[in-house]
Amino acid sequence: MSESFDLEVNGVAYPVSVDQSRNLLSVIREEIGLTGTKEGCDDCECGACMVLLDGQPVNSCSYLAVQAQGRSITTVEGVMQGDEMHVLQRKLLEEGGVQCGFCTPGMIMSAHALLDRTANPTPEDVRIGLSGNLCRCTGYAKILAAVEHAAAELG
Amino acid sequence: MSAGNHTVVGRRLPRVDALQQTTGQTQFADDLNPPGALVGRQLRSTHAHAAITSIDTVEAAALPGVKAVITGADLPITYGILPVSQDEHALALHRVRHVGEPVAAVAAIDAETAERALALIHVKYEPLTEVVTLDQALDPDRPLIHGEGDGQNVHRTAALEFGDVAEGFAAAGHVREDVYFFGGNTHAALETHAAVASCSPEGKVTLWSATQVPHYVHRALAKVLDIPAGRIRVIATPNGGGFGGKTDPFSHELVAAKLAMITGRPVKFNLSREDVFYAHRGRHPVLMWVKTGFESDGRITAMHFKSFLDGGAFGSYGTASLYYTGALQTSTYRIPNYCFEGMRVFTNKPACGPKRGHGTPQARFAIESQLDKAAADLGIDPVAIRVRNAVEPFSTTVNHLRITSCALNECIDAVVEQSGFHQKHGQLPEGRGVGLALGCYMSGAGLPIYFNKMPQSEVQLKVDRGGGVTVYSGATDIGQGSTSMLATVVAECLGLEPAELTMITADTDLTPVDLGSYSSRVTFMAGNAALEAATKVRTRLVEAVAAKLEAAVEDLEVANGRVGVLGDPESGVSWTEAVVLATAATGPLVESGSYTAPKLAGPYKGAGVGISPAYSYSACVVELEVDADTGMVDVDRVWIAHDIGKALNPLLCEGQVEGGVYMGLGEVLFEEQAFRDGLHRGPSLLDYKIPTSLETPTVHTTLIESDDPEGPYGAKEVGQGPLLPVIPAVANAIHDALGVHIDEVPITPDKIVAAMRDAARGGSGRVGPKGVPDFDFGELIRVEPPEGFVAP
C-alpha cells in the first residue's frame, strides 16, 4: 500500500509517495535522487548504504522508508559544511583512504557517527566503529588512519 | 626521461577524482538514471545441468508494464572473452550449465513489475546428470557439459618441458613431491555489476557499464548483436572495485543492449549480490602436484609441476588461467629444468576466470609451502633457500621469459630485517609463528587477448588555446588509480599539476583503445603511451618557445607552468603563451602516443602466457598467533616489500599493496566459493565473509625502486603482485607456530584442529589432498632453453 509523507534528508523535507514496503535506501536513491548512498549487499553486511538517522548510523537497505517519517536523515551529500569539506572527507582524500570510492559514503557516515559520540577515539574504537563497513580495496589501513587524524584535528 | 628531479612523480598526492568520491558525486553505473529508463531483470536457471525443453513467455509479455521479454533464441550468437573459447550465450540456449545461469530477461517499467514478469516465464527443464567435481569431470560416464554424449569434460591441457627434468632430478641430492589444493574464491567487489543501455532513433547503441574492459565488451556487443562496431559506444563507468571480476563480457550487458534496441528506451540492469556470485569468474580451485629436486645447499635442479583446474561451466579466461598456473615459477626462482603439465575441466558451476594474480597465487602457495619443507629437510633456513634460488635481474628463464629490473633480494632483505625473522623463526613460543614467502607478477600481459599487431594502449592529448590539457585514454579506473596515474605521467612531462588536467577515459567513442584494466598492464602500457603523447606536446612547445627566445631547444625546460631556460623558467613564457606560440607555429596542439610490448614470446605453443615487458617482485613476512585448541588464527603483523620499479605516487601505490595483502589474508584464512552439489553454499555477504577492519592487521609496506628501464619513469605494476606471497607466508607461519602443515587453502580452523589431532595421534600433522588423478596430459612439447641460457 502506498503512503505519502515527508522525508527530511539533509535538512530538506522531501514529499514522497511510496509503497510501505520500500526500504529507505531505494527511496533516497530513486525517489529523492541522492545517489551518493550505495547498495552493496542488501543484507545489512557491507555498510555501503549507511545513513544517519537522528545522528545514529543505520543500514538504509534494511530500514523501511515509512519508519523514517518525522526523523532527520543525513546522507553523504549532507556532510559538506557549506563549501568546506568535512574534516573526515578531507583526511580520507589526503591520506589515500579512498580507492574505488564505493564504500566511501557509508564509511564517512559511520565515521561521522563515531566521532559524534566519541571525542577522542582510540585506534581500537575506530576499528570497531568502522567494522560494519566493508572495504574491498584498501585493507582499511589508510581509512583508519584518516579517521584517527580527523578525530585528532577535531580535538 | 628526466633524471631524478621530478616535480610530480614521487609525491603523495590524492587521487584526481577523490573530491567526487568523498562527496558522493562519483557516478557509478547504478547511479545513472536516464529519463524513461526501464528496469531489466534476468531469470536464472534453477538447475545445475539440464536441457531446456521449452520456454513460455506469453504470460510475462502480457503483463501490463512489461515492454519486452527475450530468451536465448533472440541472441543466438556465441561469445567469450578469448577467441578460442566462444562458448557462452547471452541467455542459455537449449541447455543450462549452472545454477544461476541467465535463461530469459525482461524490461519493465519498474522493478516490481519486472520481478513479477520473471515469475510468469515458464521454463521446462529436463535434468541431466550434474558434473560438479574434478573427479566427476573425469568420469567417462558423465555427460559432456559442452557437446553431446559422454566423455571426459576436459577443456584444455598443456604439457611443456624446458631443459631436461629427468637429468635435473638425477643430479639432485634431495627430491620432494607434494600435493596441494587451493579452493576457489571470488572477487566480491563492493559494487555489484551494473549496466545501462540506450538506443538512439538512428540505431546507435550506447552501453554504460561497470566493466574493466570496455574495448572487449565493445567487440562482444558487435558480435552478439550482429551490428557494426561503429554503431556501438561503450562507456566504462568508474568501477566500484574490479579485481578481475568485471573483465569478461557479461550476459546483462548484452541483454541490456538488446532490450534497449527492442524497446527504444534505456534499460538498466543492477545485479543483486546473489547474481554476482553466479556471474563469478573468480579464482579457480586448483589441485597441484609439485616435484622439485634440490642440491644439498638448497639449489633447485629441476621442477615438475602439475595443475588441475576446476573451471566451472565456461571457458572464460580459462585457457590463459591454466597456463598461468605454470608460467611464473621460473620468473621467481632460477629453475634450470622445468616441466609443466596442466589441465582444466568444465563443471556445472559458475565459470571461474581471473582474480587478482590470475592463476599464479595457487601455484605460489604450493611452491612457497614446499620450499619451506625442503629447507627443513636440508637444514637450511627459509631465507637462505630463497636467496640461493632467487632470479637475477636482466636474465632469461628456461621457459624464455625475459627478466629486466628485479630487486627480489632487496625485498627479501627488507622484510627479513624489519620483521626480525631470523630472531623469531623457530624460536617463538608454541602457537606463535612467522612465515616468509616471495612473489613475482607481470606488468601487463605481453600479448593482447585477440591476435593483432595494433598498439596495446593509445593515448591522445589535446591542448586548447587557453592552455587547458585534456587527456584521452581508454584505460578504466577500477579504483586502482589509473586515471591519477595518467595525470601524474602527463603532468610530470608537461610541468603541470595533475589536478589541472581534464581526464576523459574509457569511452569507445571518445578515447583511443586501451585493452583494459587487467594483467596489471595499465601503468606500464597506458603510462608509456601517455608519456609518448606528452613528450610530443612538450617538444612542440619547447621548439616554439626556443624560436621566440632565440635559445637552443636543449637549453629549455618545461616546469611549474612555464617554458623557459633551464634552471630559470621565469626567464621564459607562461604555459598558456607557450601553447599559443606552438599552435601558431605548427597548428592544433593535438598529439597521440602508443605502447606496444616488445616481441617476447618464446618458440612454443603457450609462450604467449607469462611474457611481460617487466616483472614486479615481492617478499612478505607474516607473524601470527594460532590457538592450538580452536584453530583460530590471529594475524598480528605483515611486513611486505614490493619492487615497483618507481612509485609514481607512493600514497596510491601503498594503497595497492595494503589492499593486496588484505585480499590475500581473506583468501588464505576464510574465503571460499563453495558448493553443495551444484548449489552455491552461500551466495551472499552474510555467508561469504570477507575481512572487516577488525580482522585486518597492521601492514608495514616498503616500496623498493629498481627503476625499470622500459617503465614510464621506471614504474612497474603494483595492483596484483603484493597479494601473491601473503597466502603462503601465512601457511608457513602456521607451520612455524604449531608444526602442522595445512596444504589446502583456505586454512580454516577445522583444518588446523584436524592437523593437531593427527599430530597428537602420532600422524604427520598434515591436512591436504592425498594425491592427484592419473591423467594423460597429452604429448609433451619439449622446448630447448633459450640460446645462451646458463643453468645456475
First-residue to last-residue Cα separation of chain B? 35 Å
Gyration radius of chain A, in Å: 15 Å
Number of strands of chain B: 34
| Average pLDDT metric of chain B | 97
**Number of separate domains of chain B:** 3
Predict the CATH topology of the largest domain in chain A. Answer: Ubiquitin-like (UB roll)
Strand content of chain B: 15-25%
Radius of gyration of chain B (CA) equals: 27 Å
Which pair has the most extensive contact? A-B, 56 and 57 residues
Strand order of the largest sheet of chain A: 2-1-5-3-4
Which architecture of the largest domain in chain A per CATH? Roll
Rough outline of chain B: globular
Question: How would you sum up this structure, described in words?
Answer:
The complex is a heterodimer of chains A (155) and B (792). With 155 residues, chain A is an alpha+beta fold. Helices cover 34% and strands 17% of the residues of chain A. Chain A has 2 domains: 77 residues, Beta-grasp domain (Ubiquitin-like (UB roll), Roll); 68 residues, DNA polymerase, domain 1 (Orthogonal Bundle). Chain A has 5 helices and 5 strands. Chain A has a 5-stranded mixed beta sheet, sandwiched between helices. In chain A, β3 and β4 form a beta hairpin. In chain A, α2 crosses α5. Chain A is globular and about 45 Å long. With 792 residues, chain B is α+β, with helices and mostly antiparallel strands. Chain B folds into 3 domains: 150 residues, Aldehyde Oxidoreductase, domain 4; 183 residues, Alpha-Beta Complex (Aldehyde Oxidoreductase, domain 3); 367 residues, Aldehyde Oxidoreductase, domain 4 (2-Layer Sandwich). Chain B is 27% helix and 25% strand. Chain B contains 20 helices and 34 strands. Chain B is globular and about 85 Å long. Chains A and B meet through α2, α3, α4 and α5 of A and α1 and α18 of B.
